[in-house]
């Protein structure tokens, strides 16, 4: 069933991908040129392409995705880190096989941050999950490229490579299987008490967090590979269209995963840290106690002033942020 979802999603995206869709509309309009609707289709496609060659429309779609989960301050994380999960997507698997050396694309930062994270957490397990997202050439897999590159950096011994997944949902499912197997062999019970750092592109983080939560894996998002910028004008149809493809694909993916119950919510959001939740509960309790004392004082004005004096509520909310 998961393979069927993969194939259908690839075929659907082949049609609705913005550059393909505009080209398809333009072609249909030219073939039916004598009809009034065809004229609208042709000129609409041309105007859309002209606008996209100047205005980076993808910025407006990428911003809510990339800003959803902020980069965590690793020095402030109190919870033990059980391991690191890196989602594939930055590897050019076919090019790597042809040239017999690792080749990467613009999402390479997913993998490039791993050596520093492994140095910071020398005892953490490391899972790289990524197979082939290609319909025609599934034999070329991102996991093989990641393994080769990390081995060349002297980090291959700590790496667990999952090379069969073909989309984000399968990334989470296979990661769950690996973690369950690791827990069975974990004599010191470190994996049960720790969280997993989840590394992927910032625009891809909401969908990834949603599907990993659905799989029962407690993750700390570590977004990389930011695409959104503040420029209002950027000349270049190729670059603007490429980023628009990324943004539209991610929003469609969020909707598809939500509608097929692969995520619990349409746009996952950060959870409050447990320490923050505890402080919020303590503050709420103190406020309730203060109101109770004020009510008693109002009902019994003869009550001793010292006993009726409301307790001061410590401003615990100051400085608390969602993590």
Main traits of this protein?
alpha/beta; 323 residues; 9% strand; disordered C terminus
Number of strands: 5
Distance between the termini: 35 Å
Mean pLDDT: 87
Shape: globular
Assess the beta-strand content as a share of residues: 5-15%
Strand order of the largest sheet: 3-2-1-4-5
Helix content estimate? 40-55%
Structure characterization notes:
- The chain contains 14 helices and five strands.
- It is of the alpha/beta class.
- The chain has a five-stranded parallel sheet, with helices on both faces.
- Helix 8 links the parallel strand 2 and strand 3.
- The protein is globular, with a radius of gyration of 26 Å.
- The two termini are 35 Å apart.
Per-chain topology:
Layout: H1 2-16, H2 18-31, H3 36-52, H4 58-66, E1 81-87, H5 93-99, H6 109-112, H7 114-120, E2 125-129, H8 142-152, E3 159-162, H9 168-184, H10 190-193, E4 195-201, H11 205-214, E5 219-224, H12 237-259, H13 274-299, H14 305-308
Parallel strand pairs: 1-2, 1-4, 2-3, 4-5
Helix pairs in contact: 2-3, 4-12, 9-11
Briefly summarize what is shown.
With 323 residues, this protein is an alpha/beta fold. The chain contains 14 helices and five strands.
